[in-house]
Amino acid sequence: MKENFSRRGDRVRPAPAQPRPAPPEPGALAAKVRTMAPSMTRSMQRVAETVAADPAGCAALTVTGLAERTGTSEATVVRTARMLGYPGYRDLRLALAGLAAQQASGAAPAITTDISVDDPLTDVIAKLTQDERQTLADTAGALDISQVEAAVSAMASARRIDVYGVGASSLVAQDLAQKLLRIGLVAHAHADPHLAVTNAVQLRAGDVAIAITHSGRTVDVIEPLQAAFDHGATTVAVTGRPDGEVTQYADHVLTTSTARESELRPAAMSSRTSQLLVIDCLFIGVAQRTYETAAPALRTSYEALAHRHSPRDVR
Amino acid sequence: MKENFSRRGDRVRPAPAQPRPAPPEPGALAAKVRTMAPSMTRSMQRVAETVAADPAGCAALTVTGLAERTGTSEATVVRTARMLGYPGYRDLRLALAGLAAQQASGAAPAITTDISVDDPLTDVIAKLTQDERQTLADTAGALDISQVEAAVSAMASARRIDVYGVGASSLVAQDLAQKLLRIGLVAHAHADPHLAVTNAVQLRAGDVAIAITHSGRTVDVIEPLQAAFDHGATTVAVTGRPDGEVTQYADHVLTTSTARESELRPAAMSSRTSQLLVIDCLFIGVAQRTYETAAPALRTSYEALAHRHSPRDVR
DNA sequence: TCACAGGTGAAAGGTATTTTCGTCGCGGGT
DNA sequence: ACCCGCGACGAAAATACCTTTCACCTGTGA
User: Fold this and answer.
1) In Å, how far is A2's CA from the nearest CA of chain B?
2) Nearest to B221 by CA among B169, B277, B146, B151
3) Could you give the CA distance from residue A173 to residue A162 in angstroms, rounded to a whole number?
4) pLDDT means over runs of 10, chain A (315 residues)
5) B184 with B294: CB under 8 angstroms?
6) Nucleotide of closest approach to A71 (CA, C1')
7) What digits encode the pLDDT tens for the residues B245-303?
8) Which of A94, A152, A309 sits opposite B59 (nearest CB)?
9) Residue A309 and residue B218: Cβ atoms within 8 Å?
């Protein structure tokens, strides 16, 4: 299926790129709901929320029952189940039963209230920690291993890797580029959209472009990715919206998790945690596959930094 | 049939005494099978045993499927489900799914080893996630609230905040500065040690300088902090070594946690996670204390970014 | 205001589950 | 040995449940 007639910029992402979009596991359901909710219609959101709020109760209901309880129709319930990655309601129900059993036995119901203005610092720390830990678990649970695998393979053998990210994501992009540089790969992070595009058009088949955007519709990041895509590079999207515009130009999509946010807890926080986990996975994967060169490179760069530390207390 | 002549000892237990004969719990299924097995017919025993041996597998089967797998009929399967205390097969199946999820999650905690070169990607993700979660818990547990409190107070009323970090820590420094800017504070991140020092000497009492260094002995970060300290600014150190040199010039010390590291997992990874949690706590704390100005500022900056996203799908 | 796109639910269409009912095998009595 | 009755068992009918289709309706942009 590789039709590398790179003559025109009209390369299109192959439609059946998601034969098995999501292996539906029970644990990460709440996360999935949060990830997909924005791209759902109102009725479907109602269903999804009901289901996430009371898995045990909903597992006991039939399609009709759940439709009634949410004030919607059976069709909508089935549609929601599909959106969450299950073949139909029956399977969602099974997963729900699993989830219910898990949280029944797994003690901690993990109820996190939102952070409010007058929370004492102790609570802030506790809630923040709890949330970030949850985000990590969710992200790991929702990660599509085959996509990671594919991205890692492409990166490991890439001539050059470009990473795009603006705003908070730019820090993540830089982090990834820094790490890749340290194991001897050619990687650049671009935060300036103009420079990003001008660099992107230099890419060709065998190169890799990675876009990092939580919303999935940050134009400053989509444009360079599209340019890279059109020029035949392998493209990867790290995004919280697997249905976002950015994925149109991505050969591989890595979904980051979305945590509930509030006024005091801006989007940047949990999405950043999620993104960092994903890029760390990419990094380790690449390091494994290029171990021959990566290991000595890591050692060298470590030693190069040693003299920048004050000499004493070298334990 | 003789009805209610209760005078003799032949009183009969009222028939509807067991409207709910058995509350079907998921966990005790195996036990229930053993209890009931003797009073079952051969075919039913086959079904019960199959079910107890492989809950996960059976949960995926329909009545017909399970009947086939056990070499029996659908009716027998349903009868078995009844015998085990469920209203029908559907409910048994639900319980099975729950049981499967339970024992799946119970079997999980087998990840303590280090990441090695030949770990499959699945393990890498699991280990990485586990480690980062542990790091978060450790950091939160080790954080000295009074120090956080003090740092937050100083920051909230600061005329200006400078943040120093080089290498991986520079990204953390930038993250903090970015966030503080978004709530209307005057904050700068310095990665260039020369510029950092030249800026540090401009600070005075009422200003805040924050140094971020995992090792606690990164000279490029210590020098500007010392300069700020000498000029009367309030200084904060975010470090993994509370006994490190950097703390000599720090009014407040926030300790980050250190996870075990290995060749494939460079220091930057878990220390970064830890540092980010700490600065997030600082940020939220400051945002709370400056809520009057922070809230509208956050809203404004959010709106300012809206047009940088592609317009569609604004739900 | 109109045309249109897309969400939504009623009802038709299938599939899975439950019930019914007749057969068959087994043990005990004649 | 044969017959009788009891209960296990499964095929198929009956039902409940799930899925799909399609027309309506609502909100949106010209």
Assistant:
1) 25
2) B169
3) 9
4) 40 48 62 83 91 90 93 93 92 91 64 73 89 89 92 96 94 95 93 94 95 90 94 95 87 87 68 94 93 81 67 45
5) yes
6) C9
7) 999 999 999 999 876 666 666 656 788 999 999 999 999 999 999 988 887 877 777 66
8) A94
9) yes
| A130-134: long-range pairs with CB below 8 Å, 24+ | A131/A259, A131/A265, A131/A269, A131/A270, A132/A269, A132/A270, A132/A273, A132/B136, A132/B277, A132/B280, A133/B133, A133/B136, A133/B137, A134/A110, A134/A259
What's the pLDDT at A300? Answer: 77
* Spacing of B62 CA from C17 C1' in Å: 9
Of A288-297, B31-40, B225-234, the one with minimum mean pLDDT is: B31-40
Q: What is the pLDDT of residue B19?
A: 42
Segment B104-126, tens digit of pLDDT: 766 655 556 677 777 889 988 98
| Least confident range of A17-21, B153-157, B166-170 | A17-21
Spatial distance from the CA of B66 to the C1' of D13 (Å): 21
Q: Among residues B298, B43, B40, which one has the least CA distance to residue B182? A: B298
Q: Evaluate whether A221 touches A213 at the Cβ level (below 8 Å).
A: yes
Which of A214, A253, A210 lies closest to A34, judged by CA? A214
Q: What span, in angstroms and rounded, lies between the C-alpha atoms of B27 and B254? A: 45
Residue nearest to nucleotide C6 (CA to C1'): A41
Give the DSSP H/E element, type plus range, for residue B169. Answer: helix B168-182
Q: Any idea what the Cα angle at residue B23 is, between residues B21 and B29, rounded to 5°?
A: 110
Q: Is the CB of A215 less than 8 angstroms away from the CB of B309?
A: yes
Contact assessment for residue A90 and residue A77, using Cβ atoms and an 8 Å cutoff? no
What integer pLDDT is reported at residue B250 of this predicted model?
A: 94
Q: What is the Cα–Cα distance from A173 to A278, expressed in whole angstroms? A: 11
Residue B197 pLDDT > 90: yes
Q: What is the pLDDT of residue A292?
A: 86
D11 C1' – B75 CA distance, angstroms? 10
Residue B168 to residue A152, Cβ atoms within 8 A: no
Give the three-class secondary structure for A296: helix
Question: Can you give the pLDDT at residue B242?
Answer: 84
Q: How far is the CA of B38 from the C1' of D9 (A)?
A: 18
Helices (H) and strands (E) in chain A, counts: 13, 5
Question: Which of A186, A9, B213 is closest to A178 using CA atoms?
Answer: A186
Taking the CA atoms of A140, A102, A122 and B136 in sequence, report the sign of the dihedral they define.
negative
DSSP assignment of B60-92: T--HHHHHHHHTS-HHHHHHHHHHTT-SSHHHH
Please list the residues that pair with A235 across neighbouring strands: A209
**Nearest nucleotide (C1') to the CA of residue A45?**
C7
Determine the residue of chain B that is closest to A59 in CA distance.
B94
Which residues does chain A have within 8 Å of residue B148's beta carbon, measured at their own beta carbons? Answer: 121, 125
Distance from B46 to chain A by nearest Cα, in Å? 23
Q: Of B129, B152, B313, which has the smallest distance from its Cβ to A137's Cβ? A: B129
Q: Which nucleotide is nearest to B87 (CA to C1')?
A: C18
